[in-house]
């Protein structure tokens, strides 16, 4: 992010201690007391700014130094670089009780803007925001062309609106609306004079020429932000700044804004002939200030759209055209929401604009505000907007997923406009495979955005397919990387992992036999079907070491938690069963990225238990599938968390208490399967007598088998005795160390003790719902731990009376 030199300077600034800082402040104070504030003062202030801004916490400066910084800032003849540095340091300190500045002590608009920025950073503890607004508005009332520059004050007003929308009174709002109207519509159409002349400069050479368009033609209409020239006048700079704050001001001063009076009710005009007539017959000069500003804003946006059709001579101007189009469409959206009469004057223009830009990949970011416009106003204007959505959600993510800025803006567009989709929400939910391409390629930056968006994307009809897609997200990242490498060279190639200059799987990726799986993985819409991608996982295995794939894999557990949190709100009984089967199936079918499987297994096992708790009867309903899972487990160590959860759920919910369809035959089948699994994981080997799998799997297996003892008490007692003897043998060793061995021995001993008292064992191992209520854990006389301690004492006492 920074160069080595910059990192070194930042580190030094962060390590400066309080005593060193105090000495340095004394040096700065000494320099600021001198009459001639030269380069030494500027250099020291730069260092001081670096020190106070390099840390997250506020640095304490000597009060004398702070007072001198404030005094220097307010000097009438202080050099501008010094003023800027003093203001920057004081802003970094804010909020602070040591700051005693006031706008009354300023001598020009530049100084006022610097002081105002500090006061606004104070946090309005003494109504600084309202005070700043009053001073700035008094300066804006000045209309003298030769007066002080007002350029520095508009950013301050924009900040005031953001911090305290109600800070302006009605007459002040009207005043600023008038000034914005003048700056937007009546800026000079002649270029400004050069700032300095020379000995050989003549009066003829200094005569300003007309402003030009981005294609070099002489402008024939009013000045806008897209007008070009060598030098600009003061009112032209104000024109640019006024447009930059126009949308925020319209929202602030509009009918719904905090600074506006009760607006005329125009809702009954929407869609009527009167609305169209009023939009074309009103004379601009007769309009009130706010409506006049809206009219001028509309003309300004129309002019920007016209200017965007010109071919720019410079790339910077071409980029500016696109940015101005985005802002112009957003302003038109605000205007049409505030006054429906603008809608009919805007629709034809924006339809033509969409038709012109939809085939241009360079202008795709403009399509987002256009889509928002049609989402907002399409119904009122009787416009079928489905074609706009289809193009936006089908082609754009599939072709431009590698653009990080577009990815962020696209996902933000989806989040911000969920309330506008209404009946068209299915377009969004069915397009999740395409949206996941943004996520797969830009996962670190977009993970939080998708966590917030997933609840809107999750639908009962696509939940199973979406879960598959989330589990295959790192595989999708690898496939997108190969897809980009296989595309023809473009003028702006996206970045990929250069450590794999020629992946061995690139040619195999084009294999016709695998194209069906590749196309399924890269589909643009939900297909309603799922496919096993194991062959594709093997093909893409060389890509698993890519940094982008690893980053995507790290995001998957977080996304899975968000998915299950949302899907449980819409899941029916049948969908819950489908999800459980999917968890069992996919626990052994994941793309092998380092540490990815272990992290995902932890999430899947936790969600399996959550689904079982949500619907306990699924253990009986899916008995055959659960038995198949237990019988097909090969790598217990690799799937330990999932196996543990399945075994625990069987012991917890395989009972007539949760499902009256539970039979003795089912319990016997589960007992045999669990017994076989326990024997398999604990079978003796020449090198080790204890299990080669995590000890929690063994302890949960023993506990679950003990819960099923009403029909197999003798077998369980014998089995537990063997496990305890095995753990106590002198030659016992375990890959998990002494703690694992001790955990197995302790659990076997506890369960054997419980089996000696069947009634207590039932109370402890399979408590009734009443026993599980919070009262049993809060009341000291009925607490479950108390019962366990009592049982332990009784069993130990009985064991002590036995011979031997």
From TrEMBL:
InterPro entries: AP5Z1, AP5Z1_ARM, ARM-like, TPR_AP5Z1_C, TPR_AP5Z1_N. One of its GO terms (cellular component) is AP-5 adaptor complex. Residues 1-279 form the AP-5 complex subunit zeta-1 N-terminal TPR domain. Residues 449-794 form the AP-5 complex subunit zeta-1 C-terminal TPR domain. It holds the Pfam family TPR_AP5Z1_C. Residues 320-437 form the AP-5 complex subunit zeta-1 ARM repeats domain. This is Adaptor related protein complex 5 subunit zeta 1. It comes from Prolemur simus.
């Amino acid at each position: 992010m920074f160069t080595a030199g910059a990192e070194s300077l930042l580190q030094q600034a962060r390590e400066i201690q309080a005593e060193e800082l105090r000495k340095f402040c004394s040096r700065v104070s000494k320099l600021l007391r001198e009459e001639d504030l030269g380069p030494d003062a500027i250099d020291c202030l730069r260092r001081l700014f670096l020190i106070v801004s390099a840390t997250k916490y506020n640095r304490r400066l000597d009060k004398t130094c702070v007072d001198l910084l404030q005094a220097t800032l307010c000097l009438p003849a202080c050099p501008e670089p010094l003023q800027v540095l003093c203001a920057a340091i004081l802003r970094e300190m804010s909020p602070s009780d040591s700051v005693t500045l006031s706008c009354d002590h300023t001598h020009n608009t530049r100084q006022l803007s610097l002081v105002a920025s500090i006061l606004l950073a104070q946090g309005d503890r003494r109504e600084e925001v309202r005070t700043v607004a009053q001073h700035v508005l008094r300066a804006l009332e000045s209309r003298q062309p030769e007066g002080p520059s007002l350029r520095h004050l508009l950013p301050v007003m924009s900040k005031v609106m953001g911090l305290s929308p109600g800070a302006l009174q009605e007459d002040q709002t009207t005043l600023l609306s008038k000034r914005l109207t003048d700056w937007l519509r009546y800026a000079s159409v002649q270029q400004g004079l050069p700032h300095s002349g020379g000995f050989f400069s003549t009066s003829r050479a200094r005569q300003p020429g007309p402003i030009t368009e981005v294609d070099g033609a002489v402008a024939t209409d009013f000045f806008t932000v897209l007008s070009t020239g060598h030098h600009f006048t003061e009112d032209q700079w104000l024109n640019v700044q006024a447009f930059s704050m126009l949308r925020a001001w319209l929202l602030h001063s509009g009918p719904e804004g905090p600074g506006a009076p009760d607006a005329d009710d125009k809702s009954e005009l929407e869609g009527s002939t009167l609305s169209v007539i009023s939009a074309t017959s009103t004379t601009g000069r007769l309009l009130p200030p706010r409506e006049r500003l809206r009219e001028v804003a509309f003309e300004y946006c129309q002019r920007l759209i016209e200017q965007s059709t010109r071919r720019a001579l410079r790339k910077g101007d071409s980029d500016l055209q696109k940015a101005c189009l985005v802002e112009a469409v957003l302003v038109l959206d605000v205007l049409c929401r505030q006054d429906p009469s603008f809608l009919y004057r805007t629709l034809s223009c924006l339809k033509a604009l969409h038709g012109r830009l939809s085939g241009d990949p360079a202008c795709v970011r403009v399509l987002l505000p256009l889509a928002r416009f049609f989402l907002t106003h399409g119904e009122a204007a009787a416009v079928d907007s489905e074609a706009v959505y289809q193009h936006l959600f089908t082609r754009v993510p599939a072709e431009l997923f590698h653009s990080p800025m577009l990815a962020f803006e696209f996902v933000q567009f989806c989040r911000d406009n969920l309330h506008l989709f209404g009946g068209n929400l299915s377009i969004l939910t069915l397009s999740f495979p395409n949206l996941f391409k943004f996520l797969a390629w830009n996962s670190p930056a977009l993970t939080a955005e998708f966590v917030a968006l997933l609840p809107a994307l999750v639908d009962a009809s696509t939940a199973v397919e979406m879960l598959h897609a989330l589990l295959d997200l790192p595989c999708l990242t690898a496939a997108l990387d190969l897809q980009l490498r296989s595309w023809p060279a473009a003028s702006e190639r996206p970045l990929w992992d250069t450590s794999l200059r020629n992946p061995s799987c690139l040619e195999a990726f084009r294999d016709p036999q695998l194209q069906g799986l590749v196309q399924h993985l890269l589909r643009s819409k939900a297909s309603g079907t799922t496919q096993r991608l194991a062959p594709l996982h093997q093909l893409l295995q060389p890509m698993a070491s890519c940094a982008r794939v690893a980053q995507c894999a790290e995001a998957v557990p977080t996304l899975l938690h968000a998915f299950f949190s949302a899907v449980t709100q819409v899941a029916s009984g049948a969908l819950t069963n489908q999800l459980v089967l999917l968890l069992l199936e996919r626990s052994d079918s994941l793309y092998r990225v380092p540490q990815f499987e272990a992290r995902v297994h932890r999430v899947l096992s936790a969600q399996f238990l959550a689904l079982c708790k949500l619907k306990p009867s699924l253990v009986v309903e899916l008995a055959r599938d659960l038995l198949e899972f237990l019988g097909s487990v090969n790598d217990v160590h690799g799937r330990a968390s999932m196996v543990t959860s399945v075994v625990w759920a069987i012991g917890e919910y395989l009972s007539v208490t949760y499902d009256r369809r539970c039979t003795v035959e089912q319990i016997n089948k589960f007992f045999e399967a669990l017994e076989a699994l326990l024997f398999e994981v604990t079978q003796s080997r020449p090198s080790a007598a204890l299990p080669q799998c995590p000890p929690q799997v063994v302890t949960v297996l023993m506990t679950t088998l003990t819960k099923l003892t009403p029909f197999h008490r003798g077998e369980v007692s014998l089995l537990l005795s063997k496990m305890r003897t095995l753990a106590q043998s002198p030659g016992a060793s375990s890959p998990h160390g002494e703690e694992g061995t001790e955990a197995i021995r302790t659990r076997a001993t506890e369960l054997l003790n419980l089996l000696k008292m069947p009634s207590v064992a039932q109370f402890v191992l399979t408590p009734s719902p009443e026993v599980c209520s919070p009262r049993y854990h809060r009341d000291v006389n009925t607490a479950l731990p108390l019962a366990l301690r009592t049982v332990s004492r009784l069993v130990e006492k009985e064991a002590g009376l036995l011979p031997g």
